[in-house]
């Protein structure tokens, strides 16, 4: 019963958002959360590999050049939150460097469940990294991370990497 009510509410929200966003002038739009299903997420990952999409390579260059410096500036134990984590590929170097010195809580936030699944597959094997996936919009995800971090209060969660606290 609750599941059906939530589905109905989600369908009504979708219809309302589409009606509102496609009525905007001068530029119509559609919220990106509706584009990142499994196919949309996979398509975006492929787009980031194209030569015309230089942002991914620029991210990689910056992270490789500055990973050690970034890690040195973070407190112990570190809590890492990534907005729009996607597959988490670009975060690997930072998490591996952090995990060499301390246990890490990593909160990937993404609107796409399939992106979060890919993120867990990409990063779930790094020792001393505890992944807590948050599916949702950035602001909602940040609120959730803040709540969980306050509840966690610097204590290492029970269980191994990949188990939610």
Explain this structure.
This protein is an alpha/beta fold and 165 residues long. The protein has a single domain, classed as Rossmann fold, CATH 3.40.50.150. Helices cover 50% and strands 10% of the residues. It contains 6 helices and 4 strands; from the N terminus they run αααβαβαββα. Strands 1, 2, 3 and 4 form a 4-stranded parallel β-sheet that branches. α3 runs parallel beside α4 (92-99). It is globular. The protein starts with a helix and ends in a 13-residue tail after the last helix.
Would you summarize the structure shown here?
With 165 residues, the protein is α/β, with parallel strands linked by helices. It has six helices and four strands, in the order αααβαβαββα. Strands 1, 2, 3 and 4 form a four-stranded parallel β-sheet that branches.
CATH superfamily: Vaccinia Virus protein VP39
Distance between the termini: 28 Å
Which class in CATH terms?
Alpha Beta
Low-confidence stretches: 156-165
Total domain count: 1
β-strand number: 4
What fold name stands as the CATH topology? Rossmann fold
H and E order: HHHEHEHEEH
